[in-house]
UniProtKB/TrEMBL annotation:
<dbReference type="Pfam" id="PF02515">
    <property type="entry name" value="CoA_transf_3"/>
</dbReference>
<dbReference type="InterPro" id="IPR003673">
    <property type="entry name" value="CoA-Trfase_fam_III"/>
</dbReference>
<protein>
    <submittedName>
        <fullName>CoA transferase family III</fullName>
    </submittedName>
</protein>
<keyword id="KW-0808">Transferase</keyword>
<dbReference type="InterPro" id="IPR052985">
    <property type="entry name" value="CoA-trans_III_biosynth/detox"/>
</dbReference>
<dbReference type="GO" id="GO:0016740">
    <property type="term" value="F:transferase activity"/>
</dbReference>
<dbReference type="InterPro" id="IPR023606">
    <property type="entry name" value="CoA-Trfase_III_dom_1_sf"/>
</dbReference>
Length: 450
């Protein structure tokens, strides 16, 4: 048995559909491979659990895979909230470009405090123009905000963090141990993850993509957010199939309830920065004591070694830091940052996290040691840069009517959802719950289903 360590070769799964996302990099090839990794890992788990005589064949729809790397949700008869805060975006500084990420109020406040200006885009533009990019990036980060100066690929490869990330594995498996899986009587070929309890402590895209994927094959995903949490324009896409609950982890009762949920979870997926769970009284030794038979997968933005290992970040910022937005600028002949056409680092990392969960479950089901898997957006950027471009033909920009499946009665209103991009022989990818806002459900596992 082997741990998941790389993207699979395209000849290991079937590909249907056509088209590709236009980009300097192999975005659609990455979409195929990331979803292929999920399918192959699930097929191996199905065989290990004796849910089928052999591992079922895996098929990825190339067009749908590319579209799912974008946005899977379309409102019907109503409009979505804006995805970005009015201040968020790319700004010209004295010696290049910088991106400010201000969707969260405390991140916006940090950036404005450093710039010393009002919450007005023109005022921010004028203030940023007076700063050196690296100096402003450091100042915003030190103030508790998030920002990324645009670097070239050469600059990133010479940077201490770029050097560190380049030496990391795509999936870093640590702390091997034996895990005994709980019986799941409802598991079958059609729904191989039925009854699997997944505790989701993730935000925004990559982590939620992983748990949305697991829910698509029958897992009971319980996501825990802080009280009053919202991600306008994001939750509609990534809460599909999940029970959405809230707990105040700053309080004793909330932390104790989280420990109770962890004790009965089969899988823990989290996106906390290094040390953040420790501050909640849930260091890895405590997690091992509370839930010795859990499978655990985690991610961060900038990698697990190097001076930026604890730095906050998002896909759009990592693209700026790692040279992707600058390479896109050169490719497009543009005079400003040109990011990937979708947040491909988030989506690819999310699918690989799901594949890592499935691999760890297969290891345990086979009686072998399993381990905690760590991934990062920055390491996925390195994977994308080295991935050969092989697709040509029609460019995919937006979904057509035929790309959507049945209507979805979401927690915000009627909608349509893209058809599933991945299939296995005899195994259905589909979701039993519509997308709903944070706090819709109680902080408890759903009743068993047989």
């Amino acid at each position: 048995m082997m741990f998941l360590s790389s993207l699979p070769a395209a000849d290991r799964y079937h590909i249907t559909g056509t088209g590709h996302r236009p980009s300097v990099y192999a975005v659609s090839e990455l979409a195929n491979a990331a979803l292929g990794a999920v399918g192959l890992a699930l097929a191996d788990l199905i065989a290990a659990l004796n849910l089928a005589p052999t591992a079922p064949e895996v098929t990825v729809d190339q067009r749908l895979a590319s579209l799912w790397f974008g946005y899977s949700f379309r409102p019907e008869g109503w409009e979505m909230p804006a995805l970005w805060d009015p201040i968020a975006g790319d700004y010209a500084c004295a010696n290049g470009w910088i991106r400010l990420h201000t969707n969260l109020p405390h991140h916006r406040a940090a950036a404005l405090s450093v710039l010393g200006c009002t919450e007005d885009r023109d005022a921010v533009t004028a203030a940023v123009a007076r700063w050196d990019g690296d100096a402003l990036e450091r100042a915003v980060v030190e103030a508790g905000g998030v920002a990324a100066a645009m670097r070239s690929r050469a600059d990133w490869m010479a940077h201490p963090q770029g050097k560190a990330v380049a030496q990391e594995p795509l999936v870093d498996w640590i702390k091997p141990r034996r895990v005994v899986l709980r019986d799941r009587p409802a598991a079958c070929l059609a729904r191989p993850l039925a009854g699997l309890r997944v505790l989701d402590l993730t935000r925004v895209l990559a982590g939620p993509v992983s748990t949305r994927t697991l829910a698509g094959f029958g897992a009971d995903v319980l996501r825990i957010d802080p009280p009053g949490w919202d991600e306008p324009g994001v939750l509609q896409d990534i809460t599909l199939g999940k029970h959405m609950a809230q707990l105040n982890l700053r309080g004793t009762s909330g932390r104790e309830r989280l420990k109770e949920l962890l004790a009965s979870a089969d899988v823990l997926v989290h996106g906390y920065r290094p040390g953040a769970l420790d501050a909640l009284g849930l260091d890895i030794a405590t997690r091992d004591a509370i839930a010795p038979n859990r499978v655990e997968v985690t991610l961060n933005a900038y990698g697990w070694t190097g001076p930026w290992a604890g730095r906050r970040g998002f896909d759009s910022l990592v693209q700026m830091s790692s040279g992707l937005a600058d390479a896109g600028r050169v490719w497009a002949g543009a005079d400003k940052p040109t990011p990937l056409p979708v947040q491909a680092l988030d989506h690819a990392t999310g699918y690989m996290m799901a594949a890592a969960v499935l691999t760890a479950l297969r290891q345990a089901a086979s009686g072998a040691e399993t381990a905690v898997a760590r991934l990062s957006l920055a390491r996925m950027a390195e994977e994308l840069v080295t991935l050969p471009k092989s697709l040509a033909g029609v460019e995919i920009a937006a979904a057509d009517e035929a790309d959507y499946g049945d209507h979805e009665d979401s927690g915000w209103g009627p909608a349509r959802r893209l058809r599933a991009p991945l299939s296995l022989a005899g195994c259905h990818m589909g979701w039993s719950l519509p997308a709903t806002p944070s706090g819709t459900h109680a902080a408890d596992w759903p009743a068993p289903h047989f």
